[in-house]
Amino acid sequence: MNNLSTLHLTECEEIECIFDSTYDFKEDDLIPRLVELHLNCMDNLTELCHGPPLQVLHYFEKLELLDIVCCQKLHIIFPRDCKLQNLKILSLSSCRTDEVLFSESVAQSLQQLEQLKIHDCSELKHIIATSGSETGGCNTSEEIISVPLNSHSLMTNLRDVDIFDCRNLESIFPICYVEGLTQLHKLQIEFAPKLEYVFGECDHECLSSHQNQNDVMLPHLEVLKLSWLHNLVGMCPENCQAKWPSQSLRILDITGCPKLAIPWFNLKVGYDQRQHHLNEIWSLQCLQSLTLFDCEELKCLFSTETHRSLPELMYLSVSDCQELEQIVAANEELVELPNAELYFPKLKQITVFNCHKLKSLFPFFMVTMLPQLSTLRLSHATQLQEVFRHSQGDSIMNERKIVLPDLTEITLADLPNFVDICHGCKLHAVKLQKLSISNCPETASSLRIIQNETEEAAYVEEPFEPNFARDKGKRKENNFDFAVDKDETEEPWYMEEEEEEEEEEEEQYRSMLAMADSVDVTTHDVLSIL
To answer: Cα dist. 385→231, 324, 361, 452 in Å?
Structure first.
C-alpha cells in the first residue's frame, strides 16, 4: 500500500476508524502517499484516527482532498493537534461532527485550503473554536482558544465557502480571522437559523485591534449568497468596524433574512436606524445581479446622495420586502444636473413581487438612465401606482414621453392602484412586443391601447403550408358522416387505410419540394400538381 494515493470506502459497516495507531506497525508503512480520502455511508465509523494523540498527528499531512458523506456516528473528525497543511478541498455532508470543527491549532495548519463545503451537520456550532478550553482529542463549545498572533495568515488560499442546513451553527469564522481571507471569491450560507453574524466574536484583546480596521476585508469576494438565515443581524458584531469589498462583488443574493438591517457591515456614529441604504458602505461598482427576498428591515435599496451609478448591474429582483418604500431614494438637486451619470446603464431586467408599501420605483429624472432596460415585471404590490414618480416642481407632464428604447416586455399583475408608467406621460417603447395587464383596475387607457396594439402586432398569420396531421380529422368527417370516439384506443380499419394514404401524399409532397430546389418550381405549383 506504499503507493496508494486515493482511497474510496463505501458502506463498510465493520469499520469504526480509518487509522488505528494501537496496532504494531511503523507509521511510514501506513499509506504514506495518501492524497485523497473518500468516505461514504460508513454507518459505524466514529473517528478517523484512533490511538494516543501524539501518534496520530501526522496521518493526514499529505492529504489534499477529504470527502465525507453520510457518516452519522463520526464525531471526532480532526484530532486537536493534527496537521492539514496540504489539504485543499474539504467536504462534509450529513455528518454528526462535534460542536466545533477545527481547534485553533488545526486551523493554523490549513494554509492550502481552497474549498470548504459543509452540508447537513446538525451538531456543528462553530467552524473554528473561539472560546473555552481545549481538552482531550476532540473539540467542544467549551474550548477557550487564545487568538493567534498571526491570525491574518489563516486560510489565505480559501476561495469558496459553502454552508447548507447546519441548524445549530452560530458563526462561520471569528472576526479576527477575516483579514486572512484575501482570496475568498464565493461565500454561500443557507438554512442556518441560529446564525447571528457571519464573522463572530474574538477575545477582547484581538477585538480592540479590529475595531478601527482600515484594510479592506474580503477584497476579492465576487459572490455573496445569504439564504434563510432567520436570526442573521449582520456580517460582524456592531462593535467591529471594517471596510468591505467595493470593487469585486458581482452577485448579491439575500433571501429570507428578516432581521438583516442595511447597512449590515458598519454602524457609524450618527447612523439612523430608520434609513437603510444598500450602498452606503459598499459602492457596488462591479455588481451584476442583485436578488433580495424577505428582507423585512429594508426600506430603500439605493440613494443618489451616496452613489450616482451602478455601472454593471443587469438583473434586479426584489420580493416580499414588506417595508420597502423606494428602490432609489432621490436627491432632487440632481434633477437639474445636465451631465448626470447614468444610474443603471446596463440594467436589463427588473422584477418586483409582493412589496406592499412600494408606491413607485424611481424618481422621474431617472427615465433617461435606463437605456438597456428590456424586461419589467411588477406584481402583487397593493400601493404601487407608477414606475417613475415626479415631484410637484416637475414641468407639465402631459407633453413628455417616457422613452425606453430597449424595452420589449412589461408584465403588470395584481396591482389594484397602479395607474401608469408615469402619471400624465405617454410611454414610447419602439421595441415593445408584450404588454400584459392582469387585475389592475385603475390602469390608464393609454396603457390599454398599447396593450391592444402589441397583441395585434403579435398576431401574424402564418403562410399556408399543408399540414396533413392537422387536416386529417376534418377530411375524415367529410368522408364519414359520424364522429369517432376520442377515447377509443384502437383505430378502425378504414382509418388505418386513410393514414397510409396520407403518408403517401406527404411523401409525394416532400419529393416535389425537393425537386423544386433544383428547378424553378414554386410551392403553389407543387400544390397544383397534388
So the answer is: 33, 14, 9, 21
43, HSE (Cβ side, Cα atoms, 13 Å): 4
Q: Quick check: 152 pLDDT over 90?
A: no
Q: What is the DSSP letter of 118?
A: E
Domain boundary among 460, 494, 521: 460
CB 243 within 8 A of CB 280: no
Provide the CA 380 distance to its chain's centre, in angstroms.
22
Q: How many domains does the chain have?
A: 2
Name the least confident of 27-31, 268-272, 370-374: 268-272
Average pLDDT value for the chain = 76
- pLDDT confidence band for 24 (50 / 70 / 90): low
Is the residue at 305 inside a domain?
no
Residues 505 and 401 in one domain: no
452 shares a domain with 354: yes
Whether 183 contacts 157, CB under 8 Å: yes
Closest CA to 388 of 439, 337, 424, 438: 424
Give the end of a domain, one of 437, 460, 483: 460
Q: Does residue 259 lie in a domain region?
A: no
- The answer to whether residue 4 is domain-embedded is no
Q: Which of 23-27, 112-116, 349-353, 481-485 has the lowest mean pLDDT?
A: 481-485
Q: Which pLDDT score, from 0 to 100, does residue 346 have?
A: 94
Same domain, 497 and 415: no
Residue numbers of the domain that contains 484? 475-529
Q: Would you say the C-alpha torsion 361, 365, 370, 375 has a positive or negative sign?
A: positive
DSSP per-residue string spanning 484-495: PPTT-SS--HHH
CB neighbour class for 466 (10 Å; exposed up to 12, middle 13-18, buried from 19) = middle
Query: Given CA atoms 61, 62, 67, 68 in this order, what sign does their dihedral have?
Result: negative
Mean pLDDT over 491-520 rounds to 61
Residue 222 pairs in a beta bridge with none
Do both 379 and 440 map to the same domain?
yes
Q: Residue 138 in contact with residue 124, Cβ under 8 Å?
A: no
Other CB atoms within a 10 A radius of the CB of residue 418 amount to 25
Residue of 89, 101, 106 whose CA lies nearest to 37? 89
DSSP H helices, 273-411, are none
Peptide bond into 237 cis (omega under 30): no
H/E element, 471:
helix 468-479
**Using an 8 Å Cβ cutoff, are 350 and 362 in contact?**
no
Q: Is position 507 within any domain?
A: yes
Q: What are the backbone angles phi and psi of residue 76, rounded to the nearest 5°?
A: -100, 95
Which sign does the torsion angle of CA 22, 23, 25, 30 carry?
negative
Domain match, 419 and 489 both: no
The answer on 501 and 446 residing in a single domain is no
443 lies in the same domain as 510: no
User: Residue 528 is placed in which grid cell?
Assistant: 397544383
